[in-house]
Amino acid sequence: MQASVLLVDDERFARTLYADYLRAAGYAVEVAENAPAAVRILEARRFDVLVTDIVMPGGDGLQLLADAKQIDPNIQVVVITALDRVDPAVRAMRAGASDYLVKPVTPEAIQLSVQRSLSTRALLAENTALRGHVNLFETCQRITGTLERDKVVPLALPALAAECGASGAALLEREGEEGWHLSGLHGIASETAGEFLAPALPRLAELIPDATVLVDLPATAGHPASVCLCLPLSDGALVLGAVCLLVPGPLDAERAGRAAFICRHLGMAMKTLGRLSQVEHLAYVDDVTHLYNSRFLDLALERELAGGRAFTVLFMDLDRFKAVNDRHGHLMGSQLLTEFGRVLRSCVRDEDVLVRYGGDEFVALLAGVDSGGGLKVAERIRRVVEDHRFLSREGHSVRLTVSIGLASHPEHAPTKALLLDLADRAMYRGKETTRNVVYIAAGDLPPVAR
Questions:
Q1: Residue 447 domain-assigned?
Q2: Cα angle vertex 178, ends 173, 179, to 5°?
């Protein structure tokens, strides 16, 4: 493709001569007789190089240089000056000109100057592209290197929106075979996300790795017609999710490729986070009852204390559980513990935390519940356990009771250690008396000897 040059000189002879020199070198040349005419031409189309005289009637070359750079920052400018007017040429160089020539201008000089300017333009373009690739690579590294979900999505969605010139972005993840759930937004209000995504959702089933879906969006109040670009997040042949971008129109190949590159890294990050979540889940779950374990209880208590609201801890121990193991064996004992976990779950809310503390000891953390509400829950658990027949599916009918100790924050204790200790003491008071009872924490209860 021919390089394009705009030649500006108020002298007709000079314009004709310099244009002939440049056309002989293979350049596409257009001429203008003054600065205002040159500005009109520059506004109409782009040129690789501007060659202009410094001193012209109706506008000087320095102002034309500034106007040209404002219209197209990438244009290269060569200024021509008389021998006794070198100072303006030096000022032009400081203002961004790539070269200057002193009259009389030879064919070789103007051809070499334009060639150098084109080489500079190409080098700057390569440097810009390289910086863009480096920035893209660094962004993708940060995405894949972040192991916190609440940081990955706010990092990836703005990067994709910027790359695609999108006014908004949404992340959707697969939920079963057909469903999708919204897990992140950028530049789109949550209350309007449904309107934006509604036309795209039926089309997400068409997504396959390394392919995109374009959905035309109709104009709405205050919003012109646009396009929803759906990019897949994939793991091999499996589509894990999709990023939906509100773009003004289809992307060119380069921008589409860069967006797909970011999506591949976001897909890898989401896959890593999913595996990490599974591992973390296993680390906090009891392998017999599938309730949480004591490690998770520690985190849950910290969270509730930080929240500053009241909550209650129930410390529970199955009465005479050793007799079950002695009579039915440890395998049946483990089955009974699992069944007890299910009974507990039926007695509390979804947001409450149930923990197998160890052996046949269990803890319930009742979020936002004071001691009065906690006592009602504890009594419910006690009655349900007393009436339940355990291991009936296995051909047995085992009856059990449970002793429960109750302590509330901030009523009984300000710290998690003291709270658990007081609930434990209250539970042991029940074990030492009638069993099958609920005791509330008190400061005069003796420590538990283990």
A1: no
A2: 45
* Nearby residues of 378 by Cβ (< 8 Å), 6 or more positions away: 314, 404, 406, 438
Domain end, chosen from 96, 125, 154, is at 125
| Cα–Cα distance measured from residue 231 to residue 208, given in angstroms and rounded to the nearest whole number | 9
pLDDT in tens, the chain (450 residues): 788 999 998 888 988 999 999 999 999 999 998 888 999 999 999 999 999 888 777 667 788 888 888 898 888 888 888 766 667 767 777 778 888 888 888 889 888 988 888 888 877 777 666 676 677 788 778 887 776 777 888 889 999 998 888 888 999 988 766 678 888 899 888 888 888 788 888 888 888 887 788 888 776 545 565 788 898 888 777 888 889 988 888 888 888 888 888 888 888 888 877 776 766 667 788 889 989 999 889 989 998 998 888 999 999 999 999 999 999 999 999 999 999 999 999 999 988 999 999 899 999 999 999 999 999 999 999 999 999 999 998 889 899 999 999 999 999 999 999 999 999 999 999 999 999 999 999 877 777 655
Sign of CA dihedral 355, 361, 366, 367: negative
- What angle do the packed helices 321-328 and 330-347 form, to 10 degrees? 140
Query: What is the residue range of 387's domain?
Result: 294-440
Please give the helix or strand (H or E) that residue 112 lies within, else none.
helix 107-145
Classify residue 137: in a domain, yes or no: no
What are 8's two structure tokens?
């500006």
CATH number at residue 86: 3.40.50.2300
Assess contact for 153 and 160: CB atoms under 8 A.
no
Residues 16 and 106 in one domain: yes
The reply to whether 139 falls in a domain is no
DSSP letter (8 states) at residue 205:
G
Please tell me the total count of domains within the chain.
Answer: 3
pTM over 0.70: no
Classified as helix, coil or strand, 223 is: strand
Residue 133 lies in a domain: no
Whose tokens are 């205002």? That residue is 36
